[in-house]
What we know:
Layout lengths: L6 H8 L9 H15 L11 H8 L3 H14 L2 E4 L3 E4 L3 H6 L24 H9 L23 H15 L13 H14 L9 E4 L2 H12 L5 E6 L3 H9 L3 E8 L2 E2 L1 H6 L6 E4 L13 H14 L2 E5 L15 H4 L5 E6 L11 E4 L5 H11 L5 H12 L2 H27 L4 E3 L7 E6 L5 H10 L5 E2 L12 E5 L5 H14 L2 H4 L2
Parallel strand pairs: 4-5, 4-7, 7-8, 8-9
Antiparallel strand pairs: 1-2, 3-10, 5-6, 9-10, 11-12, 12-14, 13-14
Helix pairs in contact: 2-4, 3-4, 7-15, 8-15, 9-10, 16-18
Amino acid sequence: xxxxxxxxxxxxxxxxxxxxxxxxxxxxxxxxxxxxxxxxxxxxxxxxxxxxxxxxxxxxxxxxxxxxxxxxxxxxxxxxxxxxxxxxxxxxxxxxxxxxxxxxxxxxxxxxxxxxxxxxxxxxxxxxxxxxxxxxxxxxxxxxxxxxxxxxxxxxxxxxxxxxxxxxxxxxxxxxxxxxxxxxxxxxxxxxxxxxxxxxxxxxxxxxxxxxxxxxxxxxxxxxxxxxxxxxxxxxxxxxxxxxxxxxxxxxxxxxxxxxxxxxxxxxxxxxxxxxxxxxxxxxxxxxxxxxxxxxxxxxxxxxxxxxxxxxxxxxxxxxxxxxxxxxxxxxxxxxxxxxxxxxxxxxxxxxxxxxxxxxxxxxxxxxxxxxxxxxxxxxxxxxxxxxxxxxxxxxxxxxxxxxxxxxxxxxxxxxxxxxxxxxxxxxxxxxxxxxxxxxxxxxxxxxxxxxxxxxxxxxxxxxxxxxxxxxxxxxxxxxxxxxxxxxxxxxxxxxxxxxxxx
Length: 503
């Protein structure tokens, strides 16, 4: 039996949250369209006259008329002069003619979506493994967040206005996929002077992030299914980028002096490159000893391998002098150097860079042009002036002093409030402190208890490959004031009272 038009069904659909912000005629049009697509209104069904429906809904006739006009234009209804408006009859075959695959209720999540439906094997792998979460707001002990409240935003704004005035509309066009030349020059000058690098502007590739650089490395240097070496424990974002490129991640253990080069030489996986964080190993904070840096360079040269050096927060070194980057020691040009401005300036800038061996520049630039074209010119040229005028170095120096003080405050607070719960590993630099849980304490449970007190803890165990995983946290401190560090540590300690925290 053919269905009749049910006014109450339409009224219920008009109250759907997705329609509430629309104009009234749009709400009626969208609600009727949804009922047609759902099969609630049969093909050929006669709709109420505009005057009758307007009266029933308590709206003006023109409102309903406008809704019908749009439905007619879109092909959902037909209007016959002297007869009325009807649901288009041909929609029945299009919507319901093909047999649909039966979906079991357990396959549908709470949003009515079948997880992984229609995805490629790679897509299903990404869905199941999860993404990488970046902090949208400042939370207690969130990792990797620089201090942004004291950023010289007035200076930045003035320089950006100068760029707009000097370059006019040209900055609104597409840019060079390799990066704006003034910025590449500024980056090369900075790295050669401050990090002991050996590079020219022609070797610099400006990107949107370090993760983009890692993904490019995996795509261009490692075939799908082939191995790539990663420090164990190692940076979670790097592992995810490599896995998304379908590389097989093989862990190489680290110790107090960084990645173990003896294990690197003993590796027989056939991997073509290794990812390392020499300045401040992530997450242990260890600095790769000079002897091992040279061994790493020689290994790459002798074996024809590539070194991916992630120098993500090398600017912030507090104990002694920072060690020169591996790229500057590598006379064989087997090192790909990665840097970011998200840690030194602010995360919303979304800008990083690579130093590439000359033979790789063209391929990486081509790949980047395919991926997302270029980085916005306005931001690049503003940053170039920020560096040329000395503001970048001044800001880094100020943040280095500030973060050094905040590290000391955090270490003192850990000793005062978390004694017997965790042991802090004092890092020589960086923006976070690794903490190992004492025996009898559960990482999963302490993270859950901390979250209930509004404290964000990043677990250590997920950063380990294999079965041997250390339990603990990474405590970020760089974005917190002294008061925020102390008060957050008190909240954390209260949440982890021994009678509640012990397993």
